[in-house]
Design goal:
The protein has about 280 residues and is of the alpha/beta class. The chain has helices at about 5, 20-30, 50-70, 80-95, 105-110, 125-130, 130-135, 155-160, 160-175, 200-205, 215-230, 240-245, 260-270; strands at about 10-15, 35-40, 75, 100, 115-120, 145-150, 190, 210-215, 250-255, 280. It has a six-stranded parallel β-sheet with strand order 4-3-1-2-9-10, with helices on both faces. It is globular. The protein binds D-glutamic acid. D-glutamic acid binds near residues 16, 45, 48, 126 and 154. D-glutamic acid binds next to helix 4.
C-alpha cells in the first residue's frame, strides 16, 4: 500500500496524437476523481508508419517526462503501436509504476463472432509486432482473422481531413470485404488503433448494421482501475463537485500543433473542464 499522497498524483496518458482521447474519455468516466495529464506526440507521428526504435525512444521520453515533471502515479499507453513497441521495456524500467497498455480486442472478437471471420484494422507497425503476432497465435483456430494495415488513416484523422478519411476507409473496408479468404462473411471488426475509435460513425456506415465494431477504451479504463486498486493508488472518492473539477482541469499537451488537439477536445466532449492544449517541447 502506498502513501495516500501518492494516490493523488495524476495519471499520465499518451498517444501519437488525438487517438488516445478515445481512451481518455473512458478513463475519465471510470475514474472521475482522478487527475490526468494527456500528451499527444503529434510532432513525432505517425507512430504506425515509423520504425520500432523510434516509437520505443519516444515512449521512453514521454514516460520519463510524465514521471519526473508531473510525478505520475501510473501510465496509460493509449496507443496500440506504442504498447506493442514499448510496454515491456517501460515495465522493466519502472517496476514499481502501474503501467497499462492497449492491444487490439482479438479475444472479445473471437468470443462474439458468429460467422467466425473477424477483420482487424490497425497500423502497419502494430500488425507486424511480435506482441500482436503472439496475441493472434493465442486465438482459437476456428476463428479467421483478416488483417488490414491502414496506412495514412491515423494522419487523416489527426488532421480532421474528412475527404481523406472517407476515401481511405472506403478503400480498406473494400479490401477486407473482397479478401478471398472469407471477407464477405466478416461480422466483427477490431479497431486496433485508438485513432480509428474517433471515426466509428464513418466505419459503421461503411460496414453496415450487421457488423460489430470493437475498440478497447472501456476495457483499458476498467483495467486501470484494477491495477490502481491493487497498488493502493486509487484516489479516494471526493464526490467531485463542479468546483473540485474546476480546481483540477485536465492538462493536455501536444508536441506538434496543439490546434488539432484542441479541436478534437472540443469535438470529443471528454467531460470536465479542460485547459487549452499547449505545446510541449521535448528534445
Ligand atoms: N493511435 C495509434 C495506435 O493506437 C497509432 C497512430 C499512429 O500511427 O500514429 O496505434
Amino acid at each position: 500500500m502506498r502513501s495516500p499522497a501518492a494516490a493523488t498524483g495524476p495519471i499520465g496518458v499518451f498517444d501519437s496524437g488525438i487517438g488516445g482521447l478515445s481512451v481518455l474519455r473512458a478513463l475519465r468516466q471510470e475514474l472521475p476523481d482522478d487527475q490526468f495529464v494527456y500528451i499527444g506526440d503529434a510532432g513525432h507521428a505517425p507512430y504506425g508508419e515509423r520504425d520500432t526504435a523510434h516509437v520505443l525512444a519516444r515512449s521512453q521520453l514521454l514516460a520519463n517526462y510524465l514521471c519526473t515533471t508531473h510525478k505520475a502515479k501510473a501510465l496509460v499507453l493509449a496507443c496500440n503501436t506504442a504498447t506493442a513497441a514499448a510496454v515491456a521495456s517501460l515495465r522493466e524500467r519502472y517496476p514499481q509504476l502501474p503501467i497499462v497498455g492497449i492491444e487490439p480486442a482479438l479475444k472479445p472478437a473471437a468470443t462474439q463472432t458468429a460467422s467466425g471471420v473477424v477483420a482487424v484494422m490497425a497500423t502497419r507497425s502494430t500488425l507486424a509486432s511480435g506482441k500482436f503476432l503472439a496475441l493472434l497465435a493465442a486465438q482459437p483456430p476456428s476463428v479467421r482473422f483478416l488483417l488490414q494495415a491502414c496506412d495514412g488513416l491515423a494522419v487523416a484523422i489527426e488532421q480532421a481531413d474528412r475527404q481523406a478519411i472517407e476515401s481511405l476507409c472506403h478503400r480498406y473496408v473494400q479490401a477486407l470485404r473482397q479478401n478471398p479468404d472469407g471477407g464477405a462473411q466478416i461480422d466483427t471488426v477490431v479497431l486496433g488503433c485508438t485513432h480509428y475509435a474517433l471515426i466509428t460513425e464513418v466505419l459503421a456506415r461503411l460496414w453496415g448494421p450487421q457488423v460489430a465494431l470493437l475498440e478497447a477504451g472501456q476495457p483499458v479504463a476498467r483495467r486501470t482501475r484494477q491495477v490502481l486498486q491493487a497498488a493502493g493508488l486509487l484516489r479516494p472518492a471526493i464526490g467531485a463537485t463542479q468546483q473540485d473539477l474546476a480546481a483540477k482541469p485536465l492538462l493536455c499537451l501536444s508536441t506538434g500543433d496543439p490546434s488539432f488537439l484542441n479541436q478534437a477536445l472540443q469535438d470529443w466532449r471528454i467531460g470536465g473542464p479542460i485547459l487549452l492544449a499547449s505545446a510541449l517541447h521535448l528534445p
